[in-house]
Write a structure and sequence with these properties.
505 residues, 22 helices, 61% helix, binds fe (iii) ion, binds zinc ion, two-stranded antiparallel sheet, Ribonucleotide Reductase, subunit A, mainly alpha
């Protein structure tokens, strides 16, 4: 039988995919089929107003992604065959990659699950399809990162139990709890949290530093997966903006709900990014730019324009963005100090800061570094030279919301630790900031169940009572994965390699 118009236009095919796929259920009421998209108080009147962000049919998607995979795996292979790791600036760089693999890669997988879940629960087909594609992208990101970074596991420490560590190690509860919070929220909050606040507003502060950091430090394998994820990222950012505009245009009762989510997820995302701040200013042997400059460029300038644009819907810039601005010349120093003191319990190394690095820090932080942070770093370096490298053996108090040890300071006084607390159900809960306290106070029932690593250790739930027991439970190889870089087997190995290459040159 002859068929006319067998080949439909891309536009028509996309139309059928995202508009023609849904149906009115007859066996069950529609609210039973989609039980989660109303309880948050979001009103959607017309899903057809949804602007599809991706404009990609499924077959085009697979072809596109397959091409990118081919390229990426060719690069990874040649990197491995040519011992690409010996061209790194310094093996210290890899500690940033360890933090990425244990902290970020599992979030890619969590995003895969999160988008699959919310995609199922939107009654608009366009939104469901967009979430499905992002879910597939995120699975790919997790896989390509694991494959790329696995090369380093052949030669270096700290890469061997990333998945296990993500669920247990104290500082990894910071990224884990961030994503768990989003995944246990309703579907519209999840999209506001991840698609808008994280992917649209803050993502450049995660990926640009890691990918440029990789490029600057000779890690071509990581640069390649970064590039491979970039076109996906562009789609994700579009989804983030579209979802916000869609919700704001559907009903004005949505506005205050969205505003609260923007405030919450800006602060949660920003607190998470303080790990990136430390990475940029302290962990990259060859620096790209300071955290302060990155914050100004990617948040203050780009975010400023975005929130000017959203003002017509009645949306204001995130609450406490002013606090983040006040903290921009201190957070990296504060977070590095936490990790330096607790490297005995971490799956990556820290080290004493050299004179050249201190010169860079004081140039980039003229108002704060020499005054507040240099003296401490010099004292620690002196102690290490005297054979008394400083490790803090007391467990820190954690913020109940962001789960970071309480090492942040008062917005207007960088010499005073910032403590906030709330009473709930007869107990006192502690916070690092007004931002974290606000989040708790709005939904205390959610955060009283937080799995706080230090509390869990004290309750005996982490393998035992002393550090050795806990590290065993973390699967940290003592003496190889943890402690100061200068004493590590990989520092020794790196020294041998670089001396050998010098000789052959
Ligand atoms: Fe991703
Ligand atoms: Zn906090």
């Amino acid at each position: 039988m002859a068929r006319k118009n067998r080949k439909l236009s891309l536009k028509k095919r996309y139309q059928l995919l995202t508009r023609g796929l849904g149906w009115e259920p007859t066996y069950q009421p529609v609210d039973k089929v989609f039980p989660y998209d109303t309880f948050e108080g979001i009103h959607v009147h017309d899903w057809d107003q949804w602007q599809d962000p991706f404009r990609l049919t499924m077959d085009a998607y697979w072809k596109f992604q397959a091409k990118k995979e081919q390229k990426l795996y060719a690069v990874i292979d040649s990197f491995a065959q040519n011992n690409g790791h010996v061209n790194l600036t310094d093996a210290r760089y890899l500690n940033a990659v360890k933090l990425f693999l244990t902290g970020v890669t599992p979030l890619e997988y969590a995003a895969h699950r999160g988008y699959a879940h919310v995609g199922r629960h939107f009654r608009g087909t366009g939104a469901a399809i967009a979430c499905q594609m992002q879910s597939l992208d995120e699975l790919r990101h997790a896989q390509t990162q694991i494959h790329t970074i696995s090369h380093y596991n052949k030669f270096f420490d700290g890469f061997h139990e990333w998945r296990h560590m993500h669920d247990r190690v104290w500082y990894l509860s910071v990224p884990k709890s961030f994503f768990d919070d989003a995944m246990t929220a309703g579907p519209f909050e999840f999209l506001t949290a991840i698609s808008f606040s994280f992917e649209y507003v803050l993502t450049n502060l995660l990926f640009v530093p890691f990918m440029s950091g990789a490029a600057f430090n000779g890690d071509m394998a990581t640069v390649t997966f970064g590039f491979s994820a970039q076109s996906d990222e562009a789609r994700h950012m579009t989804l983030g903006l579209e979802v916000i505009k869609f919700l704001l245009e559907q009903d004005e009762r949505n506005v205050p709900i969205i505003q609260r989510w923007i405030d919450k997820w800006f602060w949660r995302g920003y607190r998470l990014l303080t790990l990136v701040a430390m990475m940029m200013d302290y962990m990259l042997p060859k620096k790209i730019m300071s955290w302060k400059d990155a914050w100004e460029m990617y948040y203050e300038e780009a975010g400023g324009a975005l929130f000017d644009d959203l003002a017509r819907y009645g949306i204001k810039p995130p609450k406490y963005a002013d606090v983040a601005a006040k903290e921009k010349d201190r957070v990296s120093h504060e977070v590095w100090a936490i990790f330096y003191q607790y490297t005995q319990a971490a799956a990556f190394h820290t080290w004493d800061v050299s004179d050249e690095e201190m010169a860079w820090l004081s140039e980039n932080y003229p108002d704060t570094f020499d005054k507040h942070y240099r003296p401490r770093l010099e004292l620690w370096r002196k102690m290490a030279e005297d054979g008394n490298r400083f490790y803090n053996n007391a467990l820190p108090q954690l913020c109940t919301c962001c789960q970071i040890p309480m090492g942040f300071t008062e917005p207007d006084d960088p010499t005073k630790i910032c403590f906030r607390s709330s009473e709930y159900g007869g107990d006192t809960y502690h916070f690092c900031s007004d931002g974290c306290k606000d989040i708790f106070d709005y939904e205390p029932e959610k955060y009283v169940s937080s799995w706080l690593p230090v509390h869990q250790i004290f309750q005996g739930n982490c393998g035992g009572a002393d550090l050795g027991d806990v590290l065993k439970w973390y699967k940290i190889n003592v003496g190889a994965d943890n402690l100061d870089y200068s004493q590590s087997p990989e520092a020794e190995l790196w020294k041998q390699w670089t001396e050998a290459t010098k000789q052959t040159r």
